[in-house]
């Protein structure tokens, strides 16, 4: 009874606690005092962390941090590096298996070519490929087969938006072999740019190609969202990240020949 009476005579002018207003923009930090490294210096320190590792196992990874006032369209593309990273990429092509298109796809380097057989394997849970390309004449039947529920979450479902539904599958296969795909996630574009055995000159050309391509991708989004490259960090499989300056070498950098041998 006492609690009911208290609730009855509760002050009507009591205001509920105000909820904290959610931020609509990202925080920006000042990087004036951030220590940066020339490319050769960063490679020197990274190689120290990878001492004793095979030159083809650890990989240099580039993280390009993008500054944006608010969320919006993301950067996403595929790039063939001047010095590709050798990987055993398994490419699947969706087209009639006995057609001239299939023959050209196999000659270009596709590891799996077919339509109904591929659909049956995917439905059974056997996804034995890393990339999937579909011919424009075969994508309708492939989509209606219901394989999108399996391939979609893995990022393997062909679509015109990602450039994997094409008419010239052989050319797309050739472009995809040795190419690297990247996508902005949480404001960062991450991409492997070299193996530990790469020379500084090879790394410089790869890093430059990636940065220039990302700048082009940002320019294509400029009408919808304002973005810019805020920081570029080089790391490897087992090392911390080293923010890069715009320099190739510094006064303390070792000779590039020392960074070209294991």
Automatic annotation (TrEMBL):
- In its keyword annotation, does this UniProt entry include Ribosomal protein? yes
The protein's superkingdom reads Eukaryota
User: Gene3D superfamilies annotated for this entry?
Assistant: 3.30.190.20, 3.40.50.790
Q: Which GO terms describe its molecular function?
A: structural constituent of ribosome
Name one matching Pfam family: Ribosomal_L1
What GO cellular component entries does it have? Answer: mitochondrial large ribosomal subunit
Keyword presence, Ribosomal protein = yes
Q: Which family does it belong to?
A: Belongs to the universal ribosomal protein uL1 family.
Q: Which PANTHER family match?
A: 54S RIBOSOMAL PROTEIN L1, MITOCHONDRIAL, LARGE RIBOSOMAL SUBUNIT PROTEIN UL1M
Q: Which protein are we looking at? A: Ribosomal protein L1
């Amino acid at each position: 009874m006492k609690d009911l009476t208290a609730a009855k005579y509760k002050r009507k002018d009591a205001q509920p606690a105000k909820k904290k207003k959610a931020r609509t923009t990202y925080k920006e930090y000042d990087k004036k005092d951030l220590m940066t490294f020339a490319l050769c210096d960063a490679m020197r320190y990274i190689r120290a962390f990878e001492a004793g590792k095979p030159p083809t196992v650890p990989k240099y990874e580039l993280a390009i941090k993008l500054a944006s006032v608010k969320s919006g369209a993301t950067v996403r593309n595929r790039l063939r590096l001047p010095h590709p990273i050798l990987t055993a990429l398994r490419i699947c092509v969706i087209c009639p298996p006995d057609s001239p298109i299939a023959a050209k796809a196999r000659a270009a380097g596709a590891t799996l070519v077919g339509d109904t057989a591929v659909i049956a394997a995917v439905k059974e849970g056997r996804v034995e490929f890393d990339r999937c390309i579909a011919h424009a004449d075969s994508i309708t039947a492939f989509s209606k087969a219901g394989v999108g529920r399996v391939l979609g979450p893995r990022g393997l479902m062909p679509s015109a938006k990602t450039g994997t539904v094409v008419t010239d599958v052989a050319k797309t296969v050739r472009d995809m072999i040795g190419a690297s795909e990247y996508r902005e996630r949480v404001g960062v574009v991450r991409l492997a740019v070299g193996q530990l055995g790469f020379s500084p000159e090879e790394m410089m050309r790869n890093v430059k190609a990636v940065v220039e391509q990302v700048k082009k991708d940002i320019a294509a989004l400029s009408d919808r969202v304002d973005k810019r490259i805020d920081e570029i960090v080089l790391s490897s499989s087992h090392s911390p990240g080293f923010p890069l300056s715009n320099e190739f070498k510094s006064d303390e950098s070792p000779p590039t020949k020392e960074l070209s041998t294991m």
